[in-house]
Write a structure and sequence with these properties.
Immunoglobulin-like; four-stranded antiparallel β-sheet; three-stranded antiparallel β-sheet; 0% helix
């Protein structure tokens, strides 16, 4: 039986970075060497954004999001991880 969990051991976190964080603008960037699916959730668990990300398409527009704390779920073929993002 295979279970999927959000964790730091599922793929190399050294190759993935979210910046600036916290962000004071309406966008942030993801540094990645591999294609990813990005999902952003508010603190109530509602999905706000879902899109594909790669090394050439790494600017994420969050102009529709209110200020606050969000969870950014990054999914690759090797696994997934969740990071926190603060929009100020």
């Amino acid at each position: 039986m295979h279970t999927s969990s959000l964790g730091v051991d599922t793929f190399n976190l050294e190759t993935i970075r979210i910046y600036p964080n916290p962000t004071k603008t309406n966008s942030f960037y993801i540094k990645t060497l591999q294609p990813l699916t990005l999902e952003i959730f508010n603190i109530l668990g509602k999905k706000a954004i879902s899109q594909q990300v790669n090394a050439n398409n790494n600017r994420i527009d969050i102009s529709d999001l209110s200020k606050g704390l969000y969870l950014v779920r990054l999914i690759s073929e090797h696994g997934e991880v969740t990071k926190k993002l603060i929009k100020q």
